[in-house]
Amino acid sequence: MNHADQKSGGYGFTEYLQNYFAYMMEHYDIDGLIEYGDESLPGTHQVVNPRWRELDKAVRQTRQSERKLQAAIARTALNDGGEIQKNAESVEALQAVQEELKRLCAARKASPRKVTIDSLPEAERPTQLPPLNKMLCDTVKIVAYRAETAMVALLRRHLKKEDDARALIRELFVSSADIEPNALANTLTIKIHRIASPAHDRAIAALLEELTLQDFPHPETGARMTFTLV
User: Fold this and answer.
1) Which residue in 118, 213, 197, 188 sits closest to 164, CA to CA?
2) Which one has a higher pLDDT value, 9 or 12?
3) Of 106, 124, 142, which residue sits at a domain end?
4) How far apart are CA 181 and CA 196, in angstroms?
5) For position 7, what pLDDT does the model report?
6) Could you list the residue range(s) of the whole structural domain that residue 81 is in?
7) Confidence label for 98 from pLDDT (cuts 50, 70 and 90)
8) Which of 80, 96, 124 is the last residue of a domain?
9) What DSSP designation does 28 have?
């Protein structure tokens, strides 16, 4: 643990955690501790409405598409009008996406965010994990939050507000990317697609550069992982 903590920004802890779980699963059957099965919940218990969750996911995906189109239009505009037809098509696509975004937002607003379990169809009623299973899952969630917080700490060097940094990290986690393995060089390059905001792009680019300098190996292949913004 001490050796892992010597690495910058808390990323040593994340690497330590990966090694820890791999070791414990191999030698101590940690996955065997999980209890299989579930338990029913009271019908009056409130849960997130499945319909609202679907709409919320669709809103986030459509908003991401909107940002990509905005970024594409901005890049085309820098070409001094050399791609007028392409830019016009992008603007038309953006307008269609924005209309769809308005529709989804309205539908999400009209749907209750939470409903009681007994108001849901039988097949959609959630259950809860047994106590030991839930404890293990909650522990993993806490660790994931700590890893996210470590990345936020690195990003704060380039963004003033913590809320902005955390929101940008969450967006980074769901951003599209290309993965390019190079067997000869024994590298794995992760190419993250740009975000609409130039300021956020600069911050993410600096973060990815710091991650690359950490020389993280892929946990299975051992290939050196590099990160870049495209």
Assistant:
1) 197
2) 12
3) 124
4) 27
5) 38
6) 46-124
7) very high
8) 124
9) S
Token pair recorded at residue 111: 């749907």
What is the structure's pLDDT at 104? Answer: 94
Does 135 lie in the same domain as 31? yes
- Say how many domains are in the chain: 2
Nearest to 146 by CA among 12, 25, 22, 2: 12
Q: Which long-range contacts (CB under 8 A, 24 or more apart) does 65-74 make?
A: 65/97, 66/94, 66/97, 66/98, 66/101, 67/195, 67/196, 68/176, 68/193, 68/196, 69/93, 69/94, 69/97, 70/94, 70/196, 71/194, 71/195, 71/196, 74/196
Residues 50 and 134 reside in one and the same domain: no
Residues 136 and 84 in one domain: no
Return the structure tokens found at 169: 């990290």
| DSSP state letters, 83-105 | THHHHHHHHHHHHHHHHHHHHHH
Does position 108 have pLDDT exceeding 90, yes or no? yes
Following CA atoms 49, 54, 58, 61 in sequence, which dihedral angle do they give, to the nearest 10 degrees? 100
End-to-end CA distance of the chain: 35
Smallest CA-to-CA distance from 174 within 148, 197, 212, 198 is with: 148
Two structure tokens written together for 44:
């009056």
